[in-house]
Amino acid sequence: MEKVLISRNSVLFFIATIVLLLLVYYSRQVFLVSILGIGLGVLINPILTFLRRKLHLPRALSSILVLVAFIAIFSVVVWSMYYLLNDQISSLSSRWPTIKASTEGLVAKLFKQFPWLQEQVMNFDFTSYLKYSASGLVKGLSTSVMAISGLIFALVIGLYTAVNGKEYFDKTIEAFYPKYREKAVRVLEHSAQVIRAWFKAQLIDMVIIGVLTAVGLWIVGVEYWAIFGLLTGVLAIIPYVGIIIVVIIACLITLASDPSQIPWILLVFAVTQQLEGDVILPMVMKGGADLPVVPLLIFMLFLGTFFGILGVFMAPALLAVLRVVYIDVYLPIIERKRQREV
Prior knowledge:
The protein starts with 7 loop residues before the first helix and ends with a helix. 85% of the residues lie in helices and 0% in strands. It has 13 helices and no strands. The chain is an all-alpha fold. The radius of gyration is 24 Å and the shape is globular. The chain folds into two domains: 10-105 and 142-175, no CATH class; 179-342.
């Protein structure tokens, strides 16, 4: 048998990788906040650069203006959502026992010919499952104080990263061997460009598809049109699976209250999803990060397990960066080895 030689550098690299993964795991909340903050800094940096060039404002003052604008926009969005959803959420909460009982009755009739399946479904406590799923999904953000504190720290890190972006960038490049620095500059700049392109495209897509779905459901007279529209926009970040979840939720709730609306709901979602796939996504994703669906879903599941709901929403941006590293770093190395072997 041919002996496989393992170099000392390979062993050290393997050990360093294991240690790094352990550190990330045991300090995952700090890691999550830090990555989120750096990502926000990458997104904010072009805005500060624009304000400095066009208005000749210092970067520190520009960062304050950006922070004020962010708080104002966030407040307007939250107030608007509250205005639209308050009545619908109150109505849904008050009617939930009736909807739950009606749904169980419909399920019992549907599976009447399959007693064993009916027994399993009837014994399934949907409310407890939702509570358990939600608690698992938001682990690491178990209290509102922790969540708000984490987001505030991420925002502070993002502002400092944006203000001193060039300094941090130069120091990061200095950590590489001189012969790799030029390549590192290209990879980091490409990663930042991809993150900005993905965020812009994803935000536009979420807003458009959420509004279109809400308006469509409102036109056909669906009672909880705003809730379903908001869910569609938020879960649009999860390809295919997100929209399936929304359709199931919308159909179950409407089935218990007004079954005649089910065909209209399916029609609205079919039309909006067709528009998203054929018109919206090709337009907003042009020049952006077009991520493969299966790896993205697996990566979302992996990060959601370790980091909770924020991990799910951060997964596409992180996968986009890993894709850049794979294309710009790993593939050229493999190609050079192949050429040497030939």
